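FAQ
Q: What does a multi-component entry look like?
A: The components come first, one per line:
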Amino acid sequence: MELTGRNLACERGGRQVFAALNFTVAAGHALILRGPNGAGKTSLLRMIAGLIEPAEGEFVLQGGHQDLEPGQQAHLVAHQEALKPALTVEENLQFWAGFLGGGDIERALEALNLTALAGFSAGLLSAGQKRRLALARLALVPRAIWLLDEPSVGLDAASQVKLQALVHTHLEKGGIVVAATHTELGIRDAATLDFSELAA
Amino acid sequence: MQKFANPTRFLRLQSAIQPWVVAATIVLFAAGLYSGLVMAPPDYQQGETVRIMFVHVPAAWLALMIYSIMALSSAVAIVFRHPLADLAAKTAAPIGAAFTFLALATGSLWGKPMWGAWWVWDAGLTSMFVLFLLYLGYIAVWQAIEDPARGALIARIVALVGFINIPIIKFSVDWWNSLHQPASVFRIDGPAIHSSILIPLLIMATAYTMLFLALHLSAMRAEINARKLRQMELAHVGSS
Amino acid sequence: MKILAALIRRDLTLAWRQGGGVGTAAGFFLTVVVLLPLGIGPDQVLLQRIAPGALWIALLLSVLLSADSIYQTDFEDGSLELMTMGPAPLEMVVLAKAFAHWLAAGLPLAILAPMLGFLLNLAPELVLPLTVAMVIGSVSLSLLASLGAAVIVGLRRGGVLVSLLILPLYVPVLIFGVSASRGALAGPDIFAPSLLILLAISLVALVSVPVASAAAIRAYLK
Amino acid sequence: MSFAAEHIGFVIASYALSAIVIAGLIAGHILRAHQVERRLKRLEDAGAPRRRKATEVPNEQ
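Then the predicted structure of the entire assembly, as tokens:
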């Protein structure tokens, strides 16, 4: 399974964010996106997720489900946590499990050490805990491609360890991770794509 | 943060007087119903239907009284920053809305034999209807705002603005009513009420007030516990 | 299908817990009903003549009002984005959300309205036809309202715009809804066709609204 | 009060309706009070930090 981006260009609000961008990520590998804010890291992630159409260029996905778009086989964890404060932690995960076609709630809760909070309403959670709940979606439903937009923001040390463990098991199982991050996610031999070099 | 000045003092006071209030309510209701239904003579004009007054008028008085209490406690909350005052207003609203609904329903039942229609837009009932909407609006404000502290600030303003508008609405509805209907046959205060009717009415009114007191005090205790619960949940979540 | 069921169940739980949605719409409906006699006068005969039309107008305004939050919260907290990445096509997601809104707000209002008809001295024999017409009509009212919600989801002050966009689309529903509500009085040659046309409008909305809403939402997600 | 009087049905209806609404209010309040107290007790039994040191987290990693 390999995800390739050929000659990608992105325009947002009439401004060209980046152009002639190429990358390849093979199964079991991670791609770290570096660069200043507004360089287009988030836009690339949203482009892979299928939310934005590239102005030019295209994605090629070898392996994986041929009839599904890359976005349909990907998890996106962005700044917004997609949580409903009125629902409890467990109910939020139950919804996503049901909506994304089945998933193991206990495993997801355990993966981010949220079991103790299962019965509490998500509105009571702190920012870090909400971030962990959003990341728990990764462990909930197995999907090949993980698109992470600064996942470690707001996480305490213990949770960062949990996140790294999660990412490692995903890579060992042949998954792909594309992450925009300023902090070190501790992923061994990850390729890097620096947006500051791409003078658009 | 919503600190509680002295909920314990209030809770102690509440548990002390609650049994007495409940006892008084029961006694007053018994006396009121007995005097109203058995002793009071039927009206020479309306016959037995005049007895509806004993459930309609107290409900109407209470509807107005409770909104005034909500406005008063909102004012206290603003001036003295007393968090319990916000709770008093919040817990009183549903009770007030229920009594307003009762006033409307019994008013309609009382009007039907006389006017032949289930509902007539007469002065009293129309202003009562608008008051009902003020209650719904106030309750909706608490539901719409998740953060209790911010909800309290907005609810105070809504209660006071509503309260200031009650006389204005009453006046304009009365004027509107006199415009379309010469003299409404049915007046709540009506001609000088004979004492045999007045006594049961006053007993029933006091019974309703005591009932409100009993409900309101217990509702406040539940609300204080609910706030405590929310804080403990926050603390529990925060520590794990 | 199970996927959409999860979404519908979640939306209904949220509507039930927050309670605000339906409650405010019902309150709004009552307000419109009370404003009429205050404006027009308490004359029973006059009120009776306008009752079906007035109840329909109050209903469609309330449904429209209660719909602007269908996508708003999901758009703001990022759920909408993830839903487009889910296995179910966005068109079906939109249909599920509109259905959830119909169950939570559209239908209850359509049942509540005739029951409040007595406030406007509605003729008792009109209550049943009015209910039938309103239940059928409420399907397209909810669908069109959800389209309006989708069209303004990214805008901050979309409220007025949505009324301007959607109320004109309510005209056919209003016309045939009111004529159907005349029921027996209007005679069989008007009652049945009006109902059928009302049903046809709902079916057309059932097909066209999801496609249009999905397109609108995708535009905002770009 | 004579039950044979005209329109007696309305009197009975208004008293019945009042009784129902008041009973509903009372029941609602008792229900809510119990529900809150039950959840409060359940939280206290589950070892809310109030009695224990806040740092002692229920399940140590």
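Q: Is there any commentary attached?
A: Sometimes. For this entry: The radius of gyration of chain C is 18 Å.
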